[in-house]
Amino acid sequence: MKKRIALIGLLAMTIVLAACSAEEAQELEEVFSKATEASENLDNFAMEVVSEQTFETDAEEGSSPLPTGVPITTTLDSEIQMDPMAFHQTIEMDMMGNTEMEQYYTEEGLFIKPSEQEGWLKAPEEMMEQLNALSSKQQTPVEQLKQVEDYIDEFTMEMEDSNYVLTFSSSGEDVQKMLEDTMSDMLPEGTFPEDMMESVTINSINYEYTIDKESYYPKHMVVDMNMTIEQDGEKVTIDQSMEGSYSKFNEVGEITVPEEVIQNAQEMPDLGQTP
């Protein structure tokens, strides 16, 4: 149950949704097309995402492995290179105490430094294969836009100062299908359980995506979602908010792993290996 909740919660953070009135459709489609084209031509960029999740469960007190009623705040600060895919990022999580992690991902491999670890670790081949399968579907601006291409007629759009602001608010079967399609697209074949979404109900979602009028690059994203997961007679409701901002378009430069990290990193055990 905990593993399933973590997987759904993580992937739900990547959903990008929208909605539009008929009279705005033509202009919105033009904005959408130009934003997609601009993002496709990106070489690199920076992204910061702050998310907060709160879990509520109907399980007996003390029996749930989740920290119910306690907000979990995660901050992801990344610099991302598009081709070949590479990134350098730091992750901070506040869950009744702070934990931090630094990561490099390039063709050299995935290198991880948890806050409690003095040195670096190199991920096993199995983890690299999974990440390679996901990297082409990385939540870059262009991939976010492509995920909602079939839903463009549901956007609403406003112009605020130097920005286009696209918004969406909904619940029910349409949102349910989009989440299922997103997870199926992102996960490597065979890792998405066919019955996973049967246990998930999207109660509500509100989304806002801000695009710069001049460059058509993304500037800001806000997603608020409430969902319920039911399994083995237990219900867990996740209330999640996420706010992301983009910057440093084509200013990051080439991302490489420092030589000292490559030379000194210890190999992590294979995922299926028993101690």
UniProtKB/TrEMBL annotation:
Record key words, sorted: Signal
PROSITE patterns to which the protein is assigned, alphabetical: PROKAR_LIPOPROTEIN
Range of residues in the leader sequence: 1-18
InterPro entries: DUF6612
Keyword S-adenosyl-L-methionine (UniProt): no
Protein's name in the database: LppX_LprAFG lipoprotein
